[in-house]
Design brief:
Number of domains: 1
Mean pLDDT: 80
Strand order of the largest sheet: 1-4-3-2
CATH topology: Bacterial Protein-export protein SecB
Low-confidence stretches: none
Largest sheet: 4 strands, antiparallel
Helix content: 10-25%
Oligomer: single chain
Shape: elongated
CATH class: Alpha Beta
Distance between the termini: 30 Å
Order of helices and strands: EEEEEEHH
Strand content: 35-45%
Structural class: alpha+beta
Length: 141
């Protein structure tokens, strides 16, 4: 599949299970660098043309006392999904370019959700960095 032929038509995007857990102590907080940890889980159902991307995002203060944790699940339904299938180790899987594109959309959406959820806290100026979806998929730190 050539890159120029790669057009994705997302029929449906649903956000589910947006969970937020935090312990941001406003009284003791001072301007500092926050540590960002991100994990992802990707699952798909080829017959139903659905892809699920779960993102686990955790922000921590330097002392790891103050934190904000987000679990965001995105469900995508892809039109003409069979066009994005390829053979990998004798199985049909979705093309990696489709997965990285959907992961990029999921993380971009999550950046907005995290920004909104932190709006009324001392971390209100925190904006998650733009991260390559290829880096999000890698096992390296």
């Amino acid at each position: 599949m050539a890159t120029k032929d790669f057009n994705i038509n997302i029929v449906d995007l649903q956000l589910f299970e947006i969970e937020v857990d935090s312990n941001i102590s406003i009284n003791n907080w001072k301007q500092e660098t926050l540590l960002l940890k991100i994990g992802q889980n990707i699952a798909h159902n080829i017959e139903e043309a659905k892809i699920k991307i779960e993102l686990h995002i955790r922000l921590e203060s330097n002392e790891s006392v103050d934190f904000a944790e987000f679990n965001i699940t995105c469900f995508f339904t892809i039109e003409n999904s069979k066009n994005y299938l390829m053979d990998f180790e004798n199985e049909k899987v979705f093309h990696p370019q489709l997965i990285t594109t959907l992961l990029s959309i999921s993380f971009s959406t999550s950046r907005g959700i995290v920004f909104e959820k932190l709006r009324n806290t001392e971390w209100k100026e925190t904006i998650l960095p733009i991260i390559s979806p290829v880096k999000l998929l890698s096992d390296e730190d």
